[in-house]
Amino acid sequence: MPGFEQNVAGIGALAEPVRRALYLYVCAQAAPVSRDEAAEAVGVPRHQAKFHLDRLEAEGLLEADYARLTGRTGPGAGRTSKRYRRTSHDIAVSLPDRRYELAGRLMAEAITESARTGAPVLDTLHRVAAAHGMAIGSAVADGARTPPAEALDAALGALAEYGYEPRREGDRAVMANCPFHALARTHTELVCHMNHALINGLIDAVGAHEFEASLDPGEDRCCVTLTARPR
């Protein structure tokens, strides 16, 4: 999945009017579009369309393949032409970073599993969220045991990637941003406990056992903090 910097660059590429018009034209077509088709539709020279279409491909907004537009094959069928279509990747930028798609996936998975097994949906959601957190932590650890002195830094780095904006404050770490902010405001208990389970799973997988994730709501920040365990 494209990262924040790539998404920003991709969306920024649409600021140019001709490039934006080409992008919108390609997206509106049911089939891939050639350079000639795009140039004619937007009313620009072919070389200009080629430049902008290739830029859109490079920024991840379009995908391309090659095909013979004549429909013939074999000798005399002509050269292949490059064709463009909208990328299959989702591209979005939110400031501050929000992860509503992740919350939706976790809840949908929990509801599906609960309907299948008969287990309480909230218990299932906490288990699903913890498993996702463990998957994030395991990817950070990459199969190796993280030294205890580095485990918290690894956990905070992973949380930063997911938009939590972790900050150290003495012997604890607070999350300056809630990736599920709007949902947490309207469904506080549901979302905060899901969030708590996710971060706990991440901490366990990374091996930052000297710290624990606690529900500790505060003004304008995530409801979870990481605190050093009593020695």
Structure description:
By secondary structure, the protein is of the alpha+beta class. It folds into two domains: 4-86, Orthogonal Bundle (Arc Repressor Mutant, subunit A), CATH 1.10.10.10; 100-228, Muramoyl-pentapeptide Carboxypeptidase, domain 2 (2-Layer Sandwich). It is built from nine helices and seven strands; from the N terminus they run H-H-E-H-H-E-E-H-H-H-E-E-H-H-E-E. The longest helix has 21 residues, at 121-141. It starts with a helix and ends with a strand. The model has no long low-confidence stretch (mean pLDDT 89).
Provide the descriptors you would attach to this structure in a database record:
Muramoyl-pentapeptide Carboxypeptidase, domain 2, 7 strands, alpha+beta, four-stranded antiparallel beta sheet, three-stranded antiparallel beta sheet, 231 residues, 2 domains, Arc Repressor Mutant, subunit A, single chain
Give the SSE layout.
Layout: H1 4-12, H2 17-28, E1 33-34, H3 35-42, H4 46-58, E2 62-67, E3 81-86, H5 100-117, H6 121-141, H7 148-161, E4 166-169, E5 172-175, H8 181-186, H9 188-206, E6 211-215, E7 224-228
Antiparallel strand pairs: 1-3, 2-3, 4-5, 5-7, 6-7
Helix pairs in contact: 2-3, 2-4, 3-4, 5-6, 6-9, 7-9
